[in-house]
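Recall from the previous lesson that a structure prediction takes nothing but the amino acid sequence as input. Here we apply that procedure to G8 domain-containing protein from Elysia chlorotica. The sequence below is the only information supplied.
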Amino acid sequence: MRESPARSPRLMLLRNAVSLTATASTSTRRSDGGGGGRLSLTSLLLVVVVVASTVLVTPASAQTQCPDYIDDSCEDWSNAGTWPNNQVPGDGDEVEISKCILLDASTANLGGVIIRPAGSLIFEPGTGTKLKLRTKYIRVEGLLRIGSEQCRYEGKATIELTGNQGEHSDPEFGQKYIGVASGGQLELHGERKMPWVKLDQTLDTPDTLEAPYFDSKKSPIGEYWRDGFIAVVINPDNGVVRASAHFNVGSTSKYWFERDEERLVSFMEWVPAGHVVMIASQKRALSPDFNMTNVFDAVEKAIYCKVGRSRLRNLQPGEVWVAIAVKEQPWRTRERVGRDVDTGGYRHASLDLMMPWLNVAFYVSASNHYTYGWFQKSRMLAGPYDDLAPVLGTTGDVQSWRHGDPVLITSTDFDWHQAEMAVLERCDVPQRNITCTNTQLRLKGVLNYQHYGEVSQGVDMRAEIAVMSRNIVVTSSDVLPTCVGENSQEMECDYADVDYAFGGQIKILNGFGSAHIEGVSLEKMGQLHVDNDAYPIYFDMANDTTGKAYVKDNVIHESYRRCLVLRATHSLLIENNVAYDIVGHCFLLLEGGEKNNIFRGNLVAGTKVLESADATFEKREVSAFFITNPLTTVVNNVAAGGDAKGFTYAFPPQPLGESRNLGLMEEGEAKRTAFTAFDNNVAHSNYYSGVDLVKSMEDYGISLRWNTGYNFKADPKNVSSPDVQCVMRLNTLYKNSFENIIARGGWFVFDRFSMSDSSRSILMYIAGGSIQNSYLTNSIILGESDNIGKPQEYWNGTHMIYYNRSIPIRWDITYPIQGLVLVDGPAYIQNTFFNNFPPNPEYTSGAIGFIRGNKWFSSTLTAVTGAVFGFDDGPDTGNRVYDGHEGIPGFYNRTGDVQAMFRDPDGSVTGYPNSQVVKPFPFTTTDDCYYRDNWMMSVCPHRYGKVNVYPKLYSDRAITKPFMTRDDIPEAPFDGDWSSSADFPVILGTDYSYIVHFTEFIPYEIWLTGRGFEKDLPVRVGVCIPTDATISLYTYVPNWKPTTESWNQVNSVAELDAATIPESYYWDQDKGIIFFKLMNEDERSADEMDQCPLGKCPRVRLRVESGDRNNADCTSRAYPAYTRSAPSGLAVSALTETALPATASEPGESRGAHASYPFEDLEFSDGMGYLSWSEWTECTASCDGGVQSRERMCDDTQGCVGASAETRSCNTHACPRIVGNYTEWSEWTTCSASCDG
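The prediction returns the following tokens.
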């Protein structure tokens, strides 16, 4: 660390001619300094005004003598002569600054600070400096500075925002704020610390210690649930437990109280000198009915050697108390009272005593939940110092972390509440011969949960560990005892585990001069239910921030509302921040117009739901990162658990609110724009989803629609421009309860993802209104990993079930485990490794499956190729594929369920190339298929398509429903709970044929569409119509045939089967059936992935112009006349069941993300340099040489090396020359002058 004197010499940069004026009302300030600065006659505030002629300038030289920001003209805050009335501002004063002031002493509790454009308030630098500024607000029109980029602040600085709601309000900033107005400069530069790293080994709980000296969990006193105290006495010289006991002095029974009061007094008197005594409260510690003086005196004599010193005397009902002492060594005594902590109603206190010279450590804690009086947990532990504070390896350089720093260790299980706070122990202990490398650390205190520290088969599930202290602190005090607002909102605070919800805020407005916030801890910030939006950091309509702002290397802890919010703010770098215990979204782009912002290397844990009117927006959807604009860079971030989701992308049709009319995004542009970057991110321990890509934002902060409409285009403003991919790479997702990622494409390409331990690892939908398909490539999916988490206890209604690992859905142990979940599609899965889907008596599992309770229709083109499995397929080893049916927990027989299917072009799943996995129903299978019992699916050698039947009129389709028969098995029709159109799976080719019937009546207008059809594989489909019908036909694909007369009518189904004209039909008027031959004339290319080649699906429109439409089920008319035998002699042989052994034991380096090291070689870079080049613009000329240009954005605050824009020549060929004759002369123009020529 750089050495600095307590007061560094000031650089003489500017000399200001200073004039001082004072503004006061009708009375002078009290000369004795008391009275809070209030005027005695009018109760008006004294305003201190300091005026200067010039604003301070900060040098930007890289070779800087520190500090580089103090001018000789700066005057000391503590000097009475600095102020116009020769008095340092006191309690309640509002201070107005218009010259350079050096804050060299902590302030009184001020009423407010206004820094005018010519003013500066600079915290004095120096390693040993400790300064606190307490005020209700700070309005920054000039400069507020703590350190600089080149000269980080090295002392300790605190800004404490005080006051309750309504004490001061500003129309621009609201209440309790640091507000950066137009021209204002906010420069906060704390010391540099590695923000977070990953564990490089598993961190176990003390329960794994082989021989602790004492553990209350293994002692009879750990079983006591009664009121009072537990205590244990240990000889620190040898670790021998001398005594342990429980004392029920919280009892309301006179007998029990007097008995245990006497026992406790005797016990405390008996404790031998030099022995360690640990004491913890239990439930109701103190009896409300009897005098506790003897108890207090006895405890205090034992731990302090005298009475009257203990905080135990002031213990309130519901609070917890712990103490550790060495008898007759009162300087070692420690005690703590646990009041409310992060979670509402939950109280906790813990202490430790480290004695490395004796190789012994002690720990005691007590917790309770006063809302639920039965909840009480105390813990006492003693053991070898080396074992209780082991040396731990990490993935990064933690030399900047110090003994005593608090650290956060994230959960690596499904429950994010397993995140724990601990404190760093000394790393160099000569007495024990303990030293640490620059990547090692030691923790003191007892952890309650295991924190995994391994990369399991290519999935990096190592816990993150973050240092939570910074030497600059912005915090809040004097907050309300309950939430602000109506009773319902107070209940919300209880639900969100927030006891105090009126914190401070930093708000930056349009026109600001600078806002560089780094190395700062923001604690107890944000406000619930106030008139102005108030968040820890809020850039409000700040526009382009390039070169003016960044937010990095900060800690945001215990936020009452969000972390950082951007509204109409662009090009901001948000990097290496740590956030924990947050109400609502953490990082939020508010209105959807925020472009080119960069989120890199941020860690968020503990986002909590907000029960409010905008429940869909911030209750189920609460996210660590809520992104509303695709032009956002999101790389190297971690969403380490919360009540809902990790990363959510939800775009409005166009920007909302005040951003709507700023020209930021056109209507629909966002959903046609591929994401700038979403790479190397991690999401784990979120209750719902790790990544959510299925929503769009419809209303401002209110409603999210379950449809994205993603349709990525080369020119997002041009719907007709070519399709482009949206590629997301190297992301790691695990232990997200309901799904690791859910996506509704768009041409998404999920490349090299690593996913593990979720009820569903990835769900792949197709976006409504989009014909683009999604891909999963080169990835890893594990059902269950070596990261077993906390073993599950589950009450099944009759008895407790103990399971050997944690499960995703803690309240339903029968919930199925699925890896890849297919929905509608088509979707394409390529070169992906699957492992660890073992059989289980409680729940089913399968590497590949389908969404359960499906109302959508599976595409016949969805395909899995290059699949690799790490296990043998079989009922005792695991399922490559699994899809249950109604009667199996979690499965159903909805219309989408019964037609689930996918293709296996290369046989990597089934062992049979060009096979199809289908549901085992007669309508979809033949004798050439085989049923795989452990999959509950059939494998068939056929090629499948879909026939979509759509009654055009809502009045028709709301009542009458189509169903279909296959002509070789008419006794097994296919029907469903259709809500709109109906999709029927059909076997392509002429070997099978089908007839469509209706349940109630024949609709007036019917559209038939063939999806997934191939050239030379037509399908004959009949439709029931009235025997006395008048009809009209129309189609435009494959060819345009607008009238019935333009169609080719044939005389039999045999002629129809032989016809080569797609627009052919046969009408059997006696039976009341019209037959069509659906065929595709275009060849599907090798890379064609659409439902139909070239996007052309054969379509027929049939109108029943007249006739009796009531006889809609023509089964009895059609059969046996059109019954046909099952074909024989297929070109593809019938399939039989085959063994499917494991194909690889490991995924290999080319699949998955593997280890992620976002800070492995971090040197606190200000940016990653230039981002990718934009596309080349259109050429400026069509011939004779034009110019194209492109540009790239620099995300480094120190600038980037190289050009930000470049051009190239284009269309250099000569324009054609047209040779010809002149035309006739034009008429002469009017003369330019009336005279003189």
